[in-house]
Amino acid sequence: MTKITALLLAGSRPGSDPLAQAAGVAVKPLVPVRGEPMINYPARALLAHPSVGQLVILTQTPELYRADPATAWLDEDPRVRFEQSGSGIASTLLELLDRPDLPFPLLVTTADHVLLDGDMLDQFVAEADGADIAVAMVERATLLARYPSSRRTWLKFRDGWWSGANLFWFGSAKARAIISLWQEVEQDRKKGWKILAAFGPIALLGAVLRVSTLRGGIARVGRRFDLLARLVPMRKAEACIDADKVEDVALIEQILDGSA
Known about the structure:
Elements: E1 4-9, H1 18-23, E2 32-33, E3 36-37, H2 40-48, E4 52-59, H3 62-67, H4 72-76, E5 80-84, H5 89-96, E6 106-110, H6 118-128, E7 133-139, H7 140-146, E8 155-157, E9 160-170, H8 176-185, H9 192-198, H10 201-208, H11 214-224, E10 229-233, H12 246-257
InterPro entries: MobA-like_NTP_Trfase (IPR025877), Nucleotide-diphossugar_trans (IPR029044)
Protein name: Nucleotidyltransferase family protein
Domain MobA-like NTP transferase: 27-140
């Protein structure tokens, strides 16, 4: 396989982030987890994976990471580079798709994906390879069997309740159509019906009536846009636990300490 270009989203949304405020840091990716900035965890996991050729960190404030002694190593690693991110994830990705120095396939994840590890990357890369676009999800039963008190945002389908795992695969320029759609709905990413509605009335009605599976819905979206779209149902419950709230950080620290 061609070496993967990994994109790590480390930007800031407009306004202050509650988690960053609570920790007393400038931006969320610098929030400490077990004493070090959370961005270090997914960055190390990506750089340690043999399929990753380069790591691009997308942020509005690269100077913060260069100046912090705990994250300065990112600027010193020859495989890592910082790129300026825009106001939205999708718009930033669209600007990068045609860059010859950022070859496909692209693997996108987030700085708060603290529990990302080699096993997750092994599964996702193996099952996403060959697709124009792939998305990792975790079914609710997988999470609750391991962490029954963890709370996520769920989309309900006939084949289960699903939550995102913050792993995306863009295998070719055909992904542009889906990213453009993402751009339209990214402000409503927590409102499942708006996301579904953007995929068309058949997908929306199917979800409401529970006659559509997530796997089938993603495949249907791919056919609509003349590309191969694939769901990767993650085996590890930790794949959908990101550091979004104070209680998430507490759980993540317990998992990393082996006490959860």
